[in-house]
Here is the input.
Amino acid sequence: MHSLGELAARFGLELHGDPQLRVSRVATLSQATDGALSFYANSRYKKHLAATRATAVVIGPGDVSMCPVAALVSPNPYLAYARIASLMHPPAAPAAGIHPSAVVAATANVAASASIGPMCVIEEGAVVGERARIGPGCVVLAGARIGDDTRLMPRVTVYPSVSIGRRCLLHSGAVIGADGFGFAPDHGSWFKVPQLGSVRIGDDVEIGANTTIDRGAIGDTIVDEGAKLDNQIQVGHNVVIGAHTAIAACTGISGSTTIGRRCMVGGMVGFAGHLTIADDVTVTGCTLVSASIREAGSYSSGMPAVETRLWRRMVANLRRTVKRRDDGGTVQNGH
Amino acid sequence: MHSLGELAARFGLELHGDPQLRVSRVATLSQATDGALSFYANSRYKKHLAATRATAVVIGPGDVSMCPVAALVSPNPYLAYARIASLMHPPAAPAAGIHPSAVVAATANVAASASIGPMCVIEEGAVVGERARIGPGCVVLAGARIGDDTRLMPRVTVYPSVSIGRRCLLHSGAVIGADGFGFAPDHGSWFKVPQLGSVRIGDDVEIGANTTIDRGAIGDTIVDEGAKLDNQIQVGHNVVIGAHTAIAACTGISGSTTIGRRCMVGGMVGFAGHLTIADDVTVTGCTLVSASIREAGSYSSGMPAVETRLWRRMVANLRRTVKRRDDGGTVQNGH
Amino acid sequence: MHSLGELAARFGLELHGDPQLRVSRVATLSQATDGALSFYANSRYKKHLAATRATAVVIGPGDVSMCPVAALVSPNPYLAYARIASLMHPPAAPAAGIHPSAVVAATANVAASASIGPMCVIEEGAVVGERARIGPGCVVLAGARIGDDTRLMPRVTVYPSVSIGRRCLLHSGAVIGADGFGFAPDHGSWFKVPQLGSVRIGDDVEIGANTTIDRGAIGDTIVDEGAKLDNQIQVGHNVVIGAHTAIAACTGISGSTTIGRRCMVGGMVGFAGHLTIADDVTVTGCTLVSASIREAGSYSSGMPAVETRLWRRMVANLRRTVKRRDDGGTVQNGH
Here is the structure.
């Protein structure tokens, strides 16, 4: 239970309403009941704001006049909400120590304040930092390093010599440091090129469920501090992802591509290899990035759905422009 | 071994042939030998039907005249085949009980008729229903609920408080309830928005290998009864998937999108966030759904492959239509 | 430590420089220091070659004149480099034997020379071949076969009766043999079609992290010898992938499609089902293959990104070609 007065003071928010009112949980505007705190940051929910039964709403200064209940006012209500929600719902912290079922090599260096869950395997020379929490069924291979306060959710694999920074969060099924995809043609078959680099992940990085980040071929694959990766993302060998770049689910980044800082990449985007993407680039969902991007800005190639019948004709018309050129015409001189 | 007479009676099928004939297994039309049951439901296999050495074929009334062997006739031969195959090849059921290597919290509630495989971890307050089967290496975190007769194949992760219905089947590597992808911008970096909702999965849902379903930010992510999800699908936070909707592999659904009932979604489809998709919508493979779909029907934007040389010219021509408008013309008035 | 003379002799390379020089590791041209071996196979790195501080460089005959240091000359420098790197950096081989924490069925047949890691589960009737190495947390279900010298990295799942060849490498999170996606419509819901086939993987196949290969519905899903699959690839039931075909990450192959030998498939490619793809076909990244490909060659439909503002107009223009046809005109007769 927190009083609105206490929350306003702690987070530097302007309060419209009774500072004695108390909130014990967060809820959406439409589902909130007495004792719930909600937030308003998207005009599509204006109706829900008008009808909310929340005890208080975190809201921007321009919208506070529409708020039917107590208001905690912030220029960035979504951020203010996130800070309050983090205070009200702290993540559970397992007790320090190594579960008896875990297999930890004698030469592994596990901090006394760290927690190693059941069924974990920590190999020789691995390092697990202060207060790090390794969930059930994780495998940390030889010489890998897990930074202080980093959490691995269940069933994460960290390959040999991979280095993960502090305060990171890796979700279940993530695989960090598997071999990059490198083969040399050898008379009709493929000869495996040893993948001898590693992966270096900075501080405050989040990596989603079943995301894979391959080790470098010679040098390392790098994810810089504060980068946020969603689920089922594939990061090829020797990729560099700049600090504070956010990438949505199902995106794939081919080998040796460098993505700048503070980029925002939508879902299911494909990056070709050996590209350089500038800082502050936005790429919308389902786009193919096949060439380097030198300037900040927004880039797209995702084709929006239409009725299948129309789509077939759009495709036919696009093909026809080529056929006509084959007939000696061009789109221009055909007119 | 089942006699054709027994199968015809049990499944209400019309039999053309000797009711004493027996079948012991299923096989394709082309690979079937004596004692095998096959089915015919796709005219592309007409030649295989004519040449089949199966003992009997499940077939539709309109095709029975083409059947060179005994026929079990059904208006829906594929369904009839599936029912017979399920009878002839029941899934193996492990013995009830908890494997000694499993780690089950004292406060977990595991039905005596349930089976918990080796290396499983079942945390505090988790519930595992009657006859549920938890495969090797699964992790069921605190307070999660697994319904009666639900099967988890090996290495499935169920996050805290997730609820899974009855008679569900989750394949290996599935991750249910990881954090949604939510971050508030905070002066050039990202502040994590706590993901406080959960995931609710209805009865009779199948979830494919390495599919990920994120927990809600505040409310829950929902997969309704009878929905079928293929492998490597990503379901974002607060998504709702309607009853009996089927989604093919590699599709990604962004946060807060609602998909209707009985929809059929192809592979590698991308849904933007905050959309509403009507009931009975079909989306073909590799389509980007970037706006809500209000009416049942079929929708597409997947571009079919052509020779690379032609494709480059199609792209150049499409770009040219824009350049020309920059020069003051338009596709229309250019004519 | 290897002398250049020894390497030249062992791999049949022409040496330009002092045969007594020794190298102990590999490095990129730009990061190499004394004692490092590098290679030059891509003209984009010409400047790095000129400035390299490597002790020796593996290089082609046409480029050797540009090499400022000792040169090991090969017509295929990338292959020669890979062979030398494999010699200098052999993969670690764990000791033979079964870790005490592993659960191995009495009826499983594990070669004495094989290594079974901690937390593994090997079920009844499974076979693990000579010198095979099963990493921590792997699950090999009933009757599955792992060939001689095959390595499973941590947390791989092999379903019942799956057969994997010799000298294969499967990366963490791979799931081989989960049910194909098959359901028969049954009065508004779906009836599961039992997936009774298996998966057969040939010799010398590599399978990436979190890749999924489904078992066949009746017959088997097949990956032929020498095929190389990257991470997060989805292979549907009854697919056949020809020998020595290489497929990049995030590609999805729908059921019953057959891909030829020596094909090269880019990342995030989608294949529709029931197709036949010829030998020696190249498909570039983010392409949708919706029809069979009968001739070798390169095929594409990945749309390259442009500024979002321009892209919106390109899409509008493509739509307009259809609208105009609705008005009775066509692209052709409009001229």
Q: What stands out?
A: Residues 308-326 of chain A form the longest helix (19 residues). Chain A touches chain B through 70 residues (CB under 8 Å).
